[in-house]
Amino acid sequence: MVSFDDTFRRQLHELFVWRRDVRRFRTDPLPDGSIERLIEIACLSPSVGLSQPWRFVIVDDAARRRAVIDDFKTCNADALRSYSGERAAKYAALKLSGLEEAPGHLAVFAEKSDQIGSGLGRATMPETSEYSVVAAICSMWLAARAEGIGLGWVSILNPPRIHEILEIPDAWKFIGYLCIGYPQTECDRPELEQAKWESRRGPGEFTIRR
Ligand SMILES: Cc1cc2c(cc1C)N(C[C@H](O)[C@H](O)[C@H](O)COP(=O)(O)O)c1[nH]c(=O)[nH]c(=O)c1N2
To answer: Name one GO biological process term (predicted).
Structure first.
């Protein structure tokens, strides 16, 4: 039996506190095999019916990366137009992806077919496939931070365009695009909080039904 002591628990708590969504990357490359190792860890995550619906696409081609960056710019410009006044000025000042600088690009999809896991747990909640993939990304996010590697999730993208750029089968659903590399800085507060876009809420707001 494996057990975890207080020192480990304290360090694990620090890991949760210091995990960040990273948008400001150093451009130096990651050691060979880093992304593959993070994918292996992600595959230890829980999944509905043990369906393991995560599909990972390492994007190493300059033209495809450029096309993703262009799509981000288009979507981000559209998003900016949905704000006005002070909020728009604030949005325009945010850095919302590290796509240009990050040495690693990883697109993540959910395979929606029923083959693995035989549909267990999905009959009334088919979206649990996507939830399972998000769980895998969260494992990877923490595992990366434990190695001093930063991960940034980019969702300001047009899924059909991502499918086209990466030539992805129709049965896969786009979940997220991850930038991976060494962070320029480390912080225990979300960047959006530092930028006064949104503040963190503590656990004081949950509801109890008796
Ligand atoms: C599903 C999903 C999608 C996105 C994000 C997260 C998640 C979970 N986040 C990161 C998000 O802004 C960040 O997690 C919060 O601001 C909290 O910061 P920390 O992750 O604690 O640093 C994010 N950040 C960003 O700059 N551009 C983006 O497109 C997205 N998209």
So the answer is: cobalamin biosynthetic process
**Splitting the chain (210 residues) into consecutive groups of 10 residues, what average pLDDT does each group show?**
97 98 97 98 97 97 98 98 97 98 98 84 96 98 98 98 97 98 97 96 83
Alpha-carbon gap, residue 68 to 161, rounded angstroms: 8
The protein residue with its alpha carbon nearest to ligand 1, atom 6, reads: 153
Distance between Cα 97 and ligand 1 center (Å): 9
Q: HSE on the CB side for 65, CA within 13 Å?
A: 17
Ligand 1 binding pocket mutation candidate from 73, 134, 155 (most atoms within 8 A of CB): 155
Domain ranges of the chain: 34-185
Q: Is 128 helix (H, G, I), strand (E, B) or coil?
A: helix
ipTM: 0.99
Question: Considering the entire predicted model, what is its pTM?
Answer: 0.97
CATH code of 34-185, in short, is 3.40.109.10
